[in-house]
């Protein structure tokens, strides 16, 4: 619930400042949280809130990639601005070194020895970095660590 209150407060601030871009993004985020709440049938837990924000962030990241490929600079700029706003509501992201350390610790815990254990390692790592690291970064770190075995 804390996220919903924060989004409402930020929406009011954006209205007062006449910041249309921020207002639009915050409204979309608030709607996404409310929709998730309706689907769940109860107030969202902090983990569920992080999942919603992660999904919104990931959608914008994917859009950014497509806009860059298409050469639409105006949409790239707009999406970058949206990403900065969404990032404010995300947990602090782990660095690649931090992710690699978690991956190596997990490999030792599950006893992974080759690329055949990739799924087992990914399954163990993802809950540890939930919302704090992109799945692609984790995927690359696991491949890198297992290829060195």
What summary fits the major beta sheet?
Answer: none
When the domains are counted, the total is: 2
Low-confidence stretches: none
Shape: globular
N-to-C order of helices and strands: HHHHHHH
* Strand portion: under 5%
CATH class of the largest domain: Mainly Alpha
What is the name of the CATH architecture of the largest domain? Orthogonal Bundle
DSSP summary, beta strand count:
0
Oligomeric organization of the protein chains: single chain
What structural class results from the helix and strand content?
A: mainly alpha
Helix content: over 70%
Distance between the termini: 44 Å
Task: Provide a compact summary of the structure.
The protein is an all-alpha fold and 149 residues long. 77% of the residues lie in helices and 0% in strands.
Can you give a write-up of this model?
This protein has helices at residues 2-16, 20-40, 46-70, 73-87, 96-110, 118-128, 135-147. The protein is an all-alpha fold and 149 residues long. It folds into two domains: 2-87, Hypothetical Protein Yqey, Chain: A, domain1 (Orthogonal Bundle); 96-147, Arc Repressor Mutant, subunit A (Orthogonal Bundle), CATH 1.10.10. The chain contains seven helices and no strands.
Provide the fold topology:
Blueprint: H1 2-16, H2 20-40, H3 46-70, H4 73-87, H5 96-110, H6 118-128, H7 135-147
Helix pairs in contact: 1-2, 2-3, 2-4, 3-4, 5-6, 5-7, 6-7
InterPro entries: Asn/Gln_tRNA_amidoTrase-B-like, GatB_Yqey_C_2, YqeY/Aim41, YqeY/Aim41_N
Protein name: YqeY-like protein
GO molecular function: carbon-nitrogen ligase activity, with glutamine as amido-N-donor
């Amino acid at each position: 619930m804390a996220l919903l209150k924060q989004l409402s407060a930020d929406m009011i601030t954006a209205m007062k400042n006449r910041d249309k871009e921020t207002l639009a993004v915050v409204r979309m985020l608030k709607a996404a949280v409310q929709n998730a709440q309706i689907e769940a049938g109860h107030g969202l837990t902090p983990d569920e809130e992080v999942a919603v924000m992660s999904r919104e962030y990931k959608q914008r990241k994917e859009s950014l990639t497509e806009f860059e490929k298409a050469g639409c600079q105006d949409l790239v700029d707009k999406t970058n601005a949206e990403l900065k706003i969404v990032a404010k509501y995300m947990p602090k992201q782990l660095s690649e070194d931090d992710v690699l350390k978690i991956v190596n610790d997990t490999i030792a815990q599950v006893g992974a020895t080759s690329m055949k254990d990739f799924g087992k390692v990914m399954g163990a790592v993802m809950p540890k970095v939930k919302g704090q690291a992109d799945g692609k970064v984790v995927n690359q770190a696991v491949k890198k660590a297992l290829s060195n075995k």
